[in-house]
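Posting for a labmate who doesn't have an account.
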Amino acid sequence: MAAAVGVEWYQRRHGGFEGVRGSVYFGRAVSLRLHLVIVPIGIWLGGVLILGRVVERVFAYLPLPLRHRFGRPLRGLLTRSIRRRSWAAASAVIMVGLIVAFGTSVASFSASYNQAKARDARFAVGSDVRVTPSPISALDHPPQYAEKLEVPGIRTATPVVYGLQNALLESEVNEDAGNMAAVDPAAFAQVAPLIDSDFIGTTAANAMDALQREPGGVLLTEDLADTLDVEPGDEVQILFARGTQKQKLSEMKVVGLFLRLPGFPEGADLVVNIERQMQLIPSTSAAFFLAQTTDPSDATLNRVVTGLREGPGSADALQIDTRATALDKDQSSLAALNIRGLLTLDAAYALAMAATAITIFVFGLLLQRRREYVTLRAQGMRIGRIRSLLVTESVGVVVVGAVVGVLVGAIMAYVLVNVLQPLFILQPEVVIPRADIGLLAGLVLAVSVAASLAATTLIRRLPPGELLRDE
Protein backbone atom coordinates (compact mmCIF):
# COMPACT_ATOMS: atom_id res chain seq x y z
CA MET A 1 0.00 0.00 0.00
CA ALA A 2 2.86 2.38 0.82
CA ALA A 3 4.44 1.67 -2.58
CA ALA A 4 1.12 2.30 -4.38
CA VAL A 5 0.54 5.58 -2.53
CA GLY A 6 4.11 6.65 -3.25
CA VAL A 7 3.76 5.97 -6.99
CA GLU A 8 0.40 7.75 -7.02
CA TRP A 9 1.86 10.85 -5.33
CA TYR A 10 4.92 10.96 -7.58
CA GLN A 11 2.99 10.50 -10.83
CA ARG A 12 0.41 13.14 -9.91
CA ARG A 13 3.17 15.58 -9.03
CA HIS A 14 4.88 15.02 -12.38
CA GLY A 15 1.77 14.70 -14.59
CA GLY A 16 2.15 10.96 -15.08
CA PHE A 17 -1.61 10.37 -15.40
CA GLU A 18 -2.09 12.83 -18.25
CA GLY A 19 -0.60 10.72 -21.05
CA VAL A 20 -1.41 11.67 -24.64
CA ARG A 21 -5.13 12.17 -25.14
CA GLY A 22 -6.71 10.85 -28.31
CA SER A 23 -10.00 10.11 -29.97
CA VAL A 24 -11.15 8.24 -33.03
CA TYR A 25 -13.57 11.08 -33.76
CA PHE A 26 -10.73 13.62 -33.76
CA GLY A 27 -8.36 11.24 -35.56
CA ARG A 28 -5.73 11.12 -32.81
CA ALA A 29 -4.03 8.03 -31.43
CA VAL A 30 -4.15 7.27 -27.71
CA SER A 31 -1.01 6.79 -25.62
CA LEU A 32 -1.48 5.08 -22.25
CA ARG A 33 1.08 4.59 -19.51
CA LEU A 34 0.02 1.09 -18.60
CA HIS A 35 2.79 0.65 -16.04
CA LEU A 36 0.65 2.84 -13.76
CA VAL A 37 -1.78 -0.08 -13.43
CA ILE A 38 0.52 -1.12 -10.58
CA VAL A 39 -1.21 1.55 -8.48
CA PRO A 40 -4.73 0.05 -8.49
CA ILE A 41 -3.23 -3.44 -8.11
CA GLY A 42 -1.28 -2.27 -5.08
CA ILE A 43 -4.39 -0.69 -3.60
CA TRP A 44 -6.33 -3.88 -4.30
CA LEU A 45 -3.94 -6.18 -2.47
CA GLY A 46 -2.72 -3.78 0.20
CA GLY A 47 -6.11 -2.30 0.98
CA VAL A 48 -7.86 -5.64 1.45
CA LEU A 49 -5.00 -7.05 3.55
CA ILE A 50 -4.91 -3.99 5.80
CA LEU A 51 -8.67 -3.99 6.31
CA GLY A 52 -8.50 -7.76 6.84
CA ARG A 53 -6.08 -7.22 9.71
CA VAL A 54 -8.38 -4.58 11.19
CA VAL A 55 -11.32 -6.98 10.91
CA GLU A 56 -9.28 -9.71 12.62
CA ARG A 57 -8.58 -7.41 15.58
CA VAL A 58 -12.27 -6.54 15.81
CA PHE A 59 -13.21 -10.23 15.71
CA ALA A 60 -10.65 -11.07 18.38
CA TYR A 61 -12.19 -8.58 20.82
CA LEU A 62 -15.88 -9.05 20.21
CA PRO A 63 -17.76 -8.23 23.43
CA LEU A 64 -18.93 -11.22 25.45
CA PRO A 65 -22.08 -11.34 27.58
CA LEU A 66 -21.88 -10.27 31.21
CA ARG A 67 -19.44 -12.11 33.48
CA HIS A 68 -20.53 -15.52 34.72
CA ARG A 69 -23.22 -15.66 32.07
CA PHE A 70 -23.00 -17.52 28.81
CA GLY A 71 -25.81 -15.54 27.18
CA ARG A 72 -28.19 -16.88 24.60
CA PRO A 73 -26.83 -20.12 23.13
CA LEU A 74 -26.56 -18.95 19.53
CA ARG A 75 -24.98 -15.59 20.34
CA GLY A 76 -22.71 -17.01 23.02
CA LEU A 77 -21.40 -19.80 20.79
CA LEU A 78 -21.03 -17.53 17.74
CA THR A 79 -19.13 -14.83 19.65
CA ARG A 80 -16.75 -17.28 21.33
CA SER A 81 -16.20 -19.23 18.13
CA ILE A 82 -15.22 -16.11 16.16
CA ARG A 83 -13.05 -14.75 18.99
CA ARG A 84 -11.15 -18.01 19.28
CA ARG A 85 -10.62 -18.37 15.53
CA SER A 86 -10.46 -14.73 14.48
CA TRP A 87 -7.79 -15.34 11.85
CA ALA A 88 -9.85 -18.04 10.15
CA ALA A 89 -12.79 -15.64 9.84
CA ALA A 90 -10.50 -12.81 8.75
CA SER A 91 -8.99 -15.04 6.05
CA ALA A 92 -12.45 -15.60 4.61
CA VAL A 93 -13.12 -11.86 4.77
CA ILE A 94 -9.90 -11.27 2.79
CA MET A 95 -10.84 -13.82 0.13
CA VAL A 96 -14.32 -12.38 -0.33
CA GLY A 97 -12.96 -8.84 -0.16
CA LEU A 98 -10.46 -9.45 -2.96
CA ILE A 99 -13.14 -10.90 -5.20
CA VAL A 100 -15.77 -8.22 -4.51
CA ALA A 101 -13.17 -5.43 -4.79
CA PHE A 102 -12.15 -6.68 -8.23
CA GLY A 103 -15.77 -6.91 -9.37
CA THR A 104 -16.61 -3.50 -7.93
CA SER A 105 -13.68 -1.81 -9.66
CA VAL A 106 -14.57 -3.28 -13.06
CA ALA A 107 -18.27 -2.45 -12.67
CA SER A 108 -17.44 1.11 -11.64
CA PHE A 109 -14.95 1.54 -14.47
CA SER A 110 -17.53 0.20 -16.92
CA ALA A 111 -20.13 2.74 -15.79
CA SER A 112 -17.53 5.54 -15.78
CA TYR A 113 -16.33 4.55 -19.25
CA ASN A 114 -19.83 4.53 -20.72
CA GLN A 115 -20.71 7.90 -19.21
CA ALA A 116 -17.41 9.48 -20.25
CA LYS A 117 -17.69 8.23 -23.83
CA ALA A 118 -21.26 9.55 -24.05
CA ARG A 119 -20.08 12.97 -22.81
CA ASP A 120 -17.17 12.87 -25.25
CA ALA A 121 -19.51 12.13 -28.15
CA ARG A 122 -21.77 15.07 -27.29
CA PHE A 123 -18.72 17.32 -26.91
CA ALA A 124 -17.35 16.23 -30.29
CA VAL A 125 -20.66 16.85 -32.05
CA GLY A 126 -21.21 20.14 -30.21
CA SER A 127 -24.66 19.23 -28.93
CA ASP A 128 -27.22 16.46 -29.31
CA VAL A 129 -27.65 17.02 -33.06
CA ARG A 130 -25.44 18.63 -35.71
CA VAL A 131 -26.92 19.44 -39.12
CA THR A 132 -24.44 20.29 -41.87
CA PRO A 133 -25.64 21.46 -45.32
CA SER A 134 -24.12 19.42 -48.10
CA PRO A 135 -21.79 21.21 -50.56
CA ILE A 136 -24.04 20.00 -53.39
CA SER A 137 -27.15 21.59 -51.87
CA ALA A 138 -28.84 24.13 -54.17
CA LEU A 139 -30.48 26.01 -51.26
CA ASP A 140 -29.12 28.87 -49.22
CA HIS A 141 -28.58 28.34 -45.51
CA PRO A 142 -28.60 31.71 -43.77
CA PRO A 143 -28.60 31.76 -39.96
CA GLN A 144 -32.41 32.06 -40.01
CA TYR A 145 -32.56 28.55 -41.51
CA ALA A 146 -32.24 27.25 -37.94
CA GLU A 147 -35.95 27.90 -37.44
CA LYS A 148 -36.79 25.25 -40.05
CA LEU A 149 -34.85 22.66 -38.07
CA GLU A 150 -37.01 22.98 -34.96
CA VAL A 151 -38.92 19.75 -35.55
CA PRO A 152 -40.76 17.96 -32.70
CA GLY A 153 -38.20 16.94 -30.09
CA ILE A 154 -35.90 19.92 -30.70
CA ARG A 155 -35.74 22.47 -27.89
CA THR A 156 -33.30 24.95 -29.43
CA ALA A 157 -31.44 25.16 -32.75
CA THR A 158 -28.70 27.67 -33.44
CA PRO A 159 -26.50 28.50 -36.47
CA VAL A 160 -22.71 28.44 -36.45
CA VAL A 161 -20.53 30.24 -39.01
CA TYR A 162 -17.12 28.61 -39.17
CA GLY A 163 -14.16 28.17 -41.49
CA LEU A 164 -10.51 27.23 -41.54
CA GLN A 165 -8.14 30.22 -41.54
CA ASN A 166 -11.12 32.43 -42.39
CA ALA A 167 -9.96 35.39 -40.28
CA LEU A 168 -6.84 37.52 -39.92
CA LEU A 169 -6.13 39.18 -36.58
CA GLU A 170 -3.79 42.09 -36.02
CA SER A 171 -2.69 43.69 -32.77
CA GLU A 172 -0.20 46.48 -32.11
CA VAL A 173 2.70 44.01 -32.02
CA ASN A 174 1.77 41.04 -34.21
CA GLU A 175 -0.73 39.44 -36.56
CA ASP A 176 -1.89 35.87 -37.21
CA ALA A 177 -4.59 33.94 -39.07
CA GLY A 178 -7.08 31.75 -37.27
CA ASN A 179 -10.24 29.65 -37.46
CA MET A 180 -13.13 31.93 -36.56
CA ALA A 181 -16.56 30.82 -35.34
CA ALA A 182 -19.55 33.17 -35.22
CA VAL A 183 -22.33 32.07 -32.85
CA ASP A 184 -25.42 33.34 -31.12
CA PRO A 185 -23.97 33.47 -27.57
CA ALA A 186 -27.25 32.92 -25.73
CA ALA A 187 -28.38 29.97 -27.86
CA PHE A 188 -24.88 28.48 -28.12
CA ALA A 189 -24.54 28.51 -24.33
CA GLN A 190 -27.82 26.61 -24.12
CA VAL A 191 -27.18 23.88 -26.69
CA ALA A 192 -23.41 23.31 -26.40
CA PRO A 193 -21.84 21.42 -23.45
CA LEU A 194 -19.58 24.27 -22.36
CA ILE A 195 -17.18 23.60 -19.48
CA ASP A 196 -16.14 26.30 -17.03
CA SER A 197 -12.58 24.98 -16.81
CA ASP A 198 -12.14 25.69 -20.55
CA PHE A 199 -12.47 29.43 -19.90
CA ILE A 200 -9.64 31.39 -18.27
CA GLY A 201 -10.49 33.63 -15.35
CA THR A 202 -14.23 33.32 -15.82
CA THR A 203 -17.05 30.83 -16.30
CA ALA A 204 -18.63 29.65 -19.52
CA ALA A 205 -21.87 31.46 -18.75
CA ASN A 206 -20.08 34.75 -18.00
CA ALA A 207 -17.98 34.49 -21.17
CA MET A 208 -21.06 33.96 -23.36
CA ASP A 209 -22.89 36.72 -21.52
CA ALA A 210 -19.99 39.12 -22.18
CA LEU A 211 -20.07 38.22 -25.87
CA GLN A 212 -23.84 38.75 -25.91
CA ARG A 213 -23.61 42.19 -24.29
CA GLU A 214 -20.73 43.25 -26.53
CA PRO A 215 -21.57 42.50 -30.20
CA GLY A 216 -18.16 43.90 -31.09
CA GLY A 217 -16.41 41.55 -28.67
CA VAL A 218 -14.27 38.53 -29.40
CA LEU A 219 -13.13 35.47 -27.42
CA LEU A 220 -9.61 34.28 -28.18
CA THR A 221 -7.74 31.11 -27.38
CA GLU A 222 -4.93 31.49 -24.90
CA ASP A 223 -2.33 30.58 -27.53
CA LEU A 224 -3.62 33.14 -30.02
CA ALA A 225 -3.75 35.82 -27.33
CA ASP A 226 -0.11 35.08 -26.46
CA THR A 227 0.87 35.32 -30.13
CA LEU A 228 -0.85 38.69 -30.48
CA ASP A 229 0.28 39.78 -26.99
CA VAL A 230 -3.21 40.91 -25.98
CA GLU A 231 -5.36 40.54 -22.87
CA PRO A 232 -9.07 40.99 -22.13
CA GLY A 233 -9.95 44.61 -22.70
CA ASP A 234 -7.46 45.15 -25.54
CA GLU A 235 -8.43 46.05 -29.10
CA VAL A 236 -7.64 43.92 -32.16
CA GLN A 237 -8.29 44.30 -35.88
CA ILE A 238 -10.07 41.32 -37.45
CA LEU A 239 -10.46 40.68 -41.15
CA PHE A 240 -13.70 38.73 -41.64
CA ALA A 241 -14.17 36.28 -44.56
CA ARG A 242 -10.45 36.35 -45.23
CA GLY A 243 -9.45 35.46 -48.79
CA THR A 244 -12.90 36.11 -50.31
CA GLN A 245 -14.44 39.02 -52.18
CA LYS A 246 -16.66 39.74 -49.16
CA GLN A 247 -13.86 40.25 -46.64
CA LYS A 248 -14.36 43.15 -44.24
CA LEU A 249 -12.13 44.66 -41.57
CA SER A 250 -13.51 45.46 -38.14
CA GLU A 251 -12.09 46.62 -34.84
CA MET A 252 -13.02 44.24 -32.02
CA LYS A 253 -12.53 44.15 -28.27
CA VAL A 254 -11.15 41.06 -26.50
CA VAL A 255 -13.73 40.08 -23.85
CA GLY A 256 -12.27 36.75 -22.70
CA LEU A 257 -9.94 33.83 -23.25
CA PHE A 258 -10.67 30.13 -23.67
CA LEU A 259 -8.87 26.85 -24.24
CA ARG A 260 -11.29 24.88 -26.44
CA LEU A 261 -14.93 24.74 -27.49
CA PRO A 262 -17.22 21.79 -28.22
CA GLY A 263 -18.19 21.04 -31.80
CA PHE A 264 -14.97 22.07 -33.54
CA PRO A 265 -12.77 19.05 -34.33
CA GLU A 266 -10.27 21.25 -36.18
CA GLY A 267 -10.31 23.77 -33.36
CA ALA A 268 -11.70 27.30 -33.09
CA ASP A 269 -9.19 30.09 -32.44
CA LEU A 270 -11.64 32.94 -31.95
CA VAL A 271 -15.38 33.35 -31.40
CA VAL A 272 -17.46 36.39 -32.31
CA ASN A 273 -21.09 37.35 -32.06
CA ILE A 274 -23.00 36.29 -35.16
CA GLU A 275 -24.70 39.69 -35.18
CA ARG A 276 -21.42 41.40 -36.05
CA GLN A 277 -20.76 38.78 -38.75
CA MET A 278 -24.14 39.52 -40.37
CA GLN A 279 -23.67 43.29 -40.06
CA LEU A 280 -20.41 43.09 -41.97
CA ILE A 281 -21.38 40.33 -44.39
CA PRO A 282 -25.19 40.18 -44.82
CA SER A 283 -24.98 37.24 -47.24
CA THR A 284 -23.36 35.00 -44.61
CA SER A 285 -24.30 31.32 -44.71
CA ALA A 286 -24.04 29.00 -41.73
CA ALA A 287 -21.47 26.22 -41.84
CA PHE A 288 -23.62 23.99 -39.63
CA PHE A 289 -26.41 24.08 -37.08
CA LEU A 290 -26.44 22.71 -33.54
CA ALA A 291 -29.63 21.55 -31.84
CA GLN A 292 -30.54 20.40 -28.35
CA THR A 293 -33.26 17.81 -27.79
CA THR A 294 -36.04 18.25 -25.27
CA ASP A 295 -34.72 15.34 -23.20
CA PRO A 296 -31.61 13.11 -23.24
CA SER A 297 -33.41 9.89 -24.16
CA ASP A 298 -32.46 7.88 -27.25
CA ALA A 299 -36.12 7.68 -28.29
CA THR A 300 -36.35 11.47 -28.55
CA LEU A 301 -33.07 11.58 -30.47
CA ASN A 302 -34.35 9.02 -32.98
CA ARG A 303 -37.61 10.95 -33.33
CA VAL A 304 -35.67 14.14 -34.05
CA VAL A 305 -33.53 12.46 -36.72
CA THR A 306 -36.64 11.06 -38.38
CA GLY A 307 -38.31 14.48 -38.27
CA LEU A 308 -35.29 16.18 -39.83
CA ARG A 309 -35.04 13.64 -42.64
CA GLU A 310 -38.74 13.72 -43.42
CA GLY A 311 -38.96 17.50 -42.98
CA PRO A 312 -36.13 19.81 -44.08
CA GLY A 313 -34.01 16.89 -45.24
CA SER A 314 -36.61 15.75 -47.76
CA ALA A 315 -36.09 18.90 -49.85
CA ASP A 316 -32.46 19.60 -49.02
CA ALA A 317 -29.16 17.73 -48.87
CA LEU A 318 -28.34 17.65 -45.16
CA GLN A 319 -25.82 15.62 -43.20
CA ILE A 320 -27.18 14.76 -39.76
CA ASP A 321 -24.77 13.80 -37.01
CA THR A 322 -25.83 13.02 -33.47
CA ARG A 323 -24.17 12.13 -30.20
CA ALA A 324 -25.17 8.52 -30.94
CA THR A 325 -23.48 8.43 -34.35
CA ALA A 326 -20.32 9.97 -32.86
CA LEU A 327 -20.32 7.35 -30.12
CA ASP A 328 -20.82 4.56 -32.66
CA LYS A 329 -17.93 5.91 -34.72
CA ASP A 330 -15.65 5.88 -31.68
CA GLN A 331 -16.83 2.45 -30.51
CA SER A 332 -16.34 0.95 -33.95
CA SER A 333 -12.58 1.40 -33.73
CA LEU A 334 -10.25 -1.49 -33.01
CA ALA A 335 -9.10 0.26 -29.85
CA ALA A 336 -12.59 0.52 -28.37
CA LEU A 337 -13.30 -1.60 -25.33
CA ASN A 338 -16.22 -4.01 -25.20
CA ILE A 339 -17.11 -2.83 -21.73
CA ARG A 340 -20.43 -4.67 -21.46
CA GLY A 341 -18.81 -7.95 -22.44
CA LEU A 342 -15.94 -7.28 -20.06
CA LEU A 343 -18.36 -6.62 -17.22
CA THR A 344 -20.35 -9.79 -17.95
CA LEU A 345 -17.19 -11.88 -18.09
CA ASP A 346 -15.91 -10.29 -14.90
CA ALA A 347 -19.18 -10.93 -13.08
CA ALA A 348 -19.13 -14.58 -14.12
CA TYR A 349 -15.54 -15.11 -13.00
CA ALA A 350 -16.10 -13.18 -9.76
CA LEU A 351 -19.14 -15.27 -8.96
CA ALA A 352 -17.28 -18.51 -9.73
CA MET A 353 -14.32 -17.48 -7.57
CA ALA A 354 -16.61 -16.34 -4.77
CA ALA A 355 -18.52 -19.61 -4.87
CA THR A 356 -15.28 -21.58 -4.67
CA ALA A 357 -13.83 -19.49 -1.83
CA ILE A 358 -17.02 -19.50 0.22
CA THR A 359 -17.57 -23.20 -0.27
CA ILE A 360 -14.02 -23.93 0.89
CA PHE A 361 -14.53 -21.73 3.94
CA VAL A 362 -17.90 -23.25 4.89
CA PHE A 363 -16.78 -26.85 4.51
CA GLY A 364 -13.56 -25.92 6.32
CA LEU A 365 -15.70 -24.81 9.25
CA LEU A 366 -17.50 -28.13 9.19
CA LEU A 367 -14.22 -30.05 9.05
CA GLN A 368 -12.51 -28.10 11.83
CA ARG A 369 -15.47 -27.99 14.19
CA ARG A 370 -17.15 -31.32 13.63
CA ARG A 371 -16.36 -32.44 17.17
CA GLU A 372 -17.88 -29.26 18.51
CA TYR A 373 -21.06 -29.76 16.53
CA VAL A 374 -21.32 -33.39 17.63
CA THR A 375 -20.73 -32.39 21.26
CA LEU A 376 -23.43 -29.73 21.04
CA ARG A 377 -25.83 -32.31 19.67
CA ALA A 378 -24.91 -34.70 22.50
CA GLN A 379 -25.66 -31.95 25.01
CA GLY A 380 -29.12 -31.48 23.59
CA MET A 381 -28.82 -28.67 21.08
CA ARG A 382 -31.20 -29.10 18.19
CA ILE A 383 -29.87 -29.58 14.70
CA GLY A 384 -31.69 -26.41 13.58
CA ARG A 385 -29.70 -24.31 16.06
CA ILE A 386 -26.44 -25.78 14.83
CA ARG A 387 -27.44 -24.99 11.25
CA SER A 388 -28.24 -21.43 12.28
CA LEU A 389 -24.83 -21.16 13.93
CA LEU A 390 -23.04 -22.28 10.76
CA VAL A 391 -25.13 -20.15 8.41
CA THR A 392 -24.90 -17.03 10.59
CA GLU A 393 -21.12 -17.23 10.86
CA SER A 394 -20.55 -17.80 7.14
CA VAL A 395 -23.06 -15.15 6.03
CA GLY A 396 -21.68 -12.64 8.55
CA VAL A 397 -18.16 -13.17 7.28
CA VAL A 398 -19.33 -12.76 3.67
CA VAL A 399 -21.18 -9.52 4.49
CA VAL A 400 -18.09 -8.04 6.16
CA GLY A 401 -15.92 -9.18 3.23
CA ALA A 402 -18.34 -7.61 0.75
CA VAL A 403 -18.22 -4.29 2.61
CA VAL A 404 -14.41 -4.38 2.61
CA GLY A 405 -14.42 -5.24 -1.10
CA VAL A 406 -16.79 -2.42 -2.05
CA LEU A 407 -14.69 0.16 -0.18
CA VAL A 408 -11.42 -0.98 -1.74
CA GLY A 409 -13.02 -1.46 -5.17
CA ALA A 410 -14.34 2.11 -5.20
CA ILE A 411 -10.83 3.45 -4.53
CA MET A 412 -9.41 1.14 -7.22
CA ALA A 413 -11.97 2.44 -9.72
CA TYR A 414 -11.03 6.05 -8.98
CA VAL A 415 -7.36 5.36 -9.62
CA LEU A 416 -8.05 3.17 -12.66
CA VAL A 417 -10.18 5.86 -14.31
CA ASN A 418 -7.36 8.36 -13.74
CA VAL A 419 -4.83 5.99 -15.28
CA LEU A 420 -7.00 5.61 -18.39
CA GLN A 421 -8.03 9.26 -18.76
CA PRO A 422 -6.21 9.63 -22.14
CA LEU A 423 -9.00 7.43 -23.55
CA PHE A 424 -11.37 10.36 -23.14
CA ILE A 425 -11.64 13.90 -24.48
CA LEU A 426 -13.14 15.30 -21.30
CA GLN A 427 -12.04 14.63 -17.75
CA PRO A 428 -13.94 11.43 -16.81
CA GLU A 429 -15.99 11.20 -13.64
CA VAL A 430 -16.00 8.11 -11.45
CA VAL A 431 -19.44 6.48 -11.35
CA ILE A 432 -20.39 3.96 -8.67
CA PRO A 433 -23.16 1.75 -10.16
CA ARG A 434 -25.11 0.76 -7.07
CA ALA A 435 -27.34 -1.68 -8.94
CA ASP A 436 -24.45 -3.65 -10.51
CA ILE A 437 -22.44 -3.72 -7.29
CA GLY A 438 -25.53 -4.66 -5.28
CA LEU A 439 -26.24 -7.49 -7.72
CA LEU A 440 -22.68 -8.80 -7.38
CA ALA A 441 -22.80 -8.63 -3.57
CA GLY A 442 -26.24 -10.23 -3.58
CA LEU A 443 -25.05 -13.14 -5.74
CA VAL A 444 -22.04 -13.68 -3.47
CA LEU A 445 -24.34 -13.65 -0.44
CA ALA A 446 -26.71 -16.10 -2.12
CA VAL A 447 -23.79 -18.43 -2.85
CA SER A 448 -22.72 -18.28 0.80
CA VAL A 449 -26.22 -19.17 1.97
CA ALA A 450 -26.45 -22.04 -0.52
CA ALA A 451 -23.03 -23.38 0.49
CA SER A 452 -23.91 -23.10 4.19
CA LEU A 453 -27.18 -24.95 3.76
CA ALA A 454 -25.40 -27.64 1.74
CA ALA A 455 -22.82 -28.03 4.51
CA THR A 456 -25.45 -28.28 7.23
CA THR A 457 -26.97 -31.32 5.53
CA LEU A 458 -23.77 -33.20 6.40
CA ILE A 459 -24.07 -32.50 10.12
CA ARG A 460 -26.52 -35.38 10.54
CA ARG A 461 -24.01 -37.72 8.88
CA LEU A 462 -21.22 -37.00 11.35
CA PRO A 463 -20.46 -40.19 13.38
CA PRO A 464 -20.80 -39.04 17.03
CA GLY A 465 -19.30 -42.17 18.55
CA GLU A 466 -16.12 -42.17 16.46
CA LEU A 467 -15.54 -38.40 16.77
CA LEU A 468 -16.03 -38.34 20.56
CA ARG A 469 -13.90 -41.45 21.00
CA ASP A 470 -11.09 -39.86 18.94
CA GLU A 471 -11.40 -36.74 21.11
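Reply:
Got it, the C-alpha coordinates are right above this. The mean pLDDT is 83.
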